[in-house]
């Protein structure tokens, strides 16, 4: 094995490991500990929610749609009813934009939708813009079950990934260099 290929081997190894985790998360029912009554009363920040309904959703819905989202520090924003059948909200292939006021939050890391009614509804995505956080998009593309909070909680993975990502990358580099050195040793070449 020649030296240039041996040099690139650890980097290829690191690239493969880093790309292995890039799958899309699926929404799920909120944990039993999720509680809307926990909402803080301060209403001092404005958020924009851009909700895109899937083209494979029902033509329209008369269902009641609610939203709750927040950060890892317990700041929770809640809008009890976004739907308005007279405004043609949540029609198939449509995008609806809402201004929602609530407590000021840091980076939004969870979002749940609640649907109750007979029609069904399939959102494609929900994008939240906030003052203290980057815009974040939650991809659904599944029908929301009736009468449960359904969505994403990325707060634990977001807070823990920042702490462990440096250590994880260091381990990948060490592992890649070790594998490269081992291969070089086995082929009788110095690295």
From TrEMBL:
Membrane-spanning intervals of the chain: 169-188
Database matches in InterPro entries: Embryo-specific_ATS3 (IPR010417)
Name of one Pfam family that matches: ATS3
This protein's record includes keyword Transmembrane helix: yes
Keywords: Membrane, Signal, Transmembrane, Transmembrane helix
Top-level taxon in the UniProt lineage: Eukaryota
Signal sequence interval, chain numbering: 1-20
Matches recorded under PANTHER family: EMBRYO-SPECIFIC PROTEIN ATS3B, PLAT DOMAIN-CONTAINING PROTEIN
Protein name: Embryo-specific protein ATS3B
Lineage of source species: Eukaryota, Viridiplantae, Streptophyta, Embryophyta, Tracheophyta
């Amino acid at each position: 094995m020649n030296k240039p290929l041996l040099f690139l081997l650890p980097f290829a190894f690191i690239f493969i490991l880093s790309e292995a985790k890039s799958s899309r998360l699926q929404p799920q029912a909120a944990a039993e500990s999720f509680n809307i009554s926990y909402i803080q009363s301060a209403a001092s920040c404005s958020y924009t929610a851009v909700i895109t309904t899937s083209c494979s959703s029902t033509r329209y819905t008369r269902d009641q749609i609610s939203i709750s989202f927040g950060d890892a520090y317990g700041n929770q924003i809640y809008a009890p009813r976004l739907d308005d059948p007279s405004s043609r909200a949540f029609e198939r292939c449509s995008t609806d934009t809402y201004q929602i006021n609530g407590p000021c939050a840091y980076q939004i890391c969870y979002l749940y939708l609640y649907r109750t009614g007979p029609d069904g509804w399939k959102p494609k995505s929900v994008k939240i813009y906030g003052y203290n956080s980057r815009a974040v998009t939650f991809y659904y593309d599944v029908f929301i079950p009736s009468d449960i909070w359904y969505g994403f909680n990325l707060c634990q993975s977001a807070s823990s990934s920042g702490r462990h990502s440096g250590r994880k990358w260091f381990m990948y580099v060490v592992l890649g260099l070790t594998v490269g050195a081992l291969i070089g040793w086995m082929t009788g070449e110095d690295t």
